[in-house]
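Quick check before the chapter quiz. The format below is the same one you will see on the exam, so make sure you can read both the input and the output lines.
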Amino acid sequence: MVGVESGGVFRFITSNPAHEHATGLSREQLAGATPDEILPPDAAAHVKRQYRACLQAGRAIRYHETLDLPAGRGHWHTTLTPIRDESGDFALIAGVAVRLEEERKDEA
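Here is the expected output.
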């Protein structure tokens, strides 16, 4: 779960044990951190681009990605869903990422 803050800042709120294991990033490390504070520069830039694309679309987006994280290089099928607050502004992005066993040949 990612918080959407004013000025285009994204802040991680929480994750789950499966995400911790697959990424090598603990909930304690993620909680309250921005992508720039916790991820390698290339991964942070990519993640923020995807978050912005999700908000711009105003609906769930799905895509495949390859990220270099503390647990190593991983290939993911990711879905991001924007969530509005009571005033209608985007407040959260819910993310679901499934780690693929190997990179898909059609996406290499």
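If your answer matched, good. Residues 14 and 23 are 13 Å apart (CA to CA).
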